[in-house]
Amino acid sequence: MDRTRVLFLCTGNSARSQMAEAFLREYGGDRFEVFSAGLEPSPIHPLTLKVMREKGLDLEAMGHRSKSLIDEFFRKQVHIGYLITVCRKAEDRCPIYPWAGVREFWDIEDPASFQGSDEERLEFFRKTRDLIEGKVKDFIAGTGG
Questions:
Q1: Is the CATH number 3.40.50.2300 carried by domain 4-138?
Q2: In the annotation, is 25 catalytic?
Q3: Is position 87 annotated as part of the catalytic site?
């Protein structure tokens, strides 16, 4: 069975795209080959790791790491069934990916940019995680899952 390649793109590949990748791996079964990348990759945010562990998904144990869209996908002309951009900045800065079949945009606020107390920041990461989890489930349902 051919698996559909899905790439989640954001600016840093440190929060939103990592969450989306993990949820699609978890819920999509063997129907999808899932990746995430960033335009300016930075280490996975510690609160991303924490809130995903709360859902039973240990990104470090799953082998997640930040990846560069340019180095790991664009230069290699990797064909992708779905390119899903999860942040406005990445959507604006990368309007074209010639090897994508379908392109979607999920406008999700960056939890790493949220200002507040430690508890408020953690709660914002949780809300972002739950939003992304719902969007991933909707995506699976919409692709015949």
A1: yes
A2: no
A3: yes
